[in-house]
């Protein structure tokens, strides 16, 4: 079982060239859907309300065969407004609540069968939920592999020092970290993204991968560093691109036999050629997503 913990929300996408559109989103939820579409058994642990937007999220998860172990709560469903610039790049503003009181009691049964746990984004930065997520990752670490994507939102978490401390707490526990170059430049403006990735690698992960949109991605493992290009596609928008890359990266890792903490040392011994193959696979997933509107990751037959 794969477990994804994080926020679910509704993205309202606005641009100067088309009417507003509403899409179900949230970075971790997008990763869960991406994994399910690629054929993996995955449960999503997050929150949304008993309202119209919450119904959209619940239907979207069920329609994509994502397991939902926690019930909707009585608070409003979170929303994010994404405004697209002429290139299709998205900038976000948020109206959200992040807390998971039900997770404390449900944690043992949710983690019993978990061989890989993924988290990141707002879920690891916004209190009080971020503390609950961190405790859950700590509990899962002895038996599951862990992945983390900081997916920073400076318009929401404005305190850079706090965001950096939060990111580093999860990096220490993670086996695989994926971050965008924008994330790392914002968190560490006084050094290069490569320097930050190498420093994070020393803190615990087996692999750190940095994405740079159409410029491709760069990754580092103990054996060295490698770069991979991005497929050339016609971009509709970039909403969900990083999440599709993340689900594609996890899919490739799982297909390569990396699941469960017993594979942790094998993961740390990964060759650069293996990492390059993983990154190419992930980039194909992201390329399909940016070629269509919204966070719409590929199914298995599309990747094939």
Describe the structure.
The structure is a single chain. Helix 1 (27-37) packs across helix 8, helix 3 packs parallel to helix 4 (129-140) and helix 8 (241-255) crosses helix 10 (272-290). The strands form two sheets. The chain has an eight-stranded mixed sheet with strand order 4-1-7-8-9-10-11-12, sandwiched between helices. Helix content is 39%, strand content 20%. Helix 4 (129-140) links the parallel strand 7 (116-120) and strand 8 (145-149). The protein has 304 residues and is α/β, with parallel strands linked by helices. The longest helix is centred in the C-terminal third of the chain and has 19 residues, at 272-290. It has helices at 27-37, 52-63, 101-111, 129-140, 160-173, 181-187, 193-202, 241-255, 264-268, 272-290, 300-303; strands spanning 2-5, 9-14, 21-25, 42-45, 79-84, 90-95, 116-120, 145-149, 176-180, 207-211, 217-221, 224-228. The model has no long low-confidence stretch (mean pLDDT 94). It has eleven helices and twelve strands.
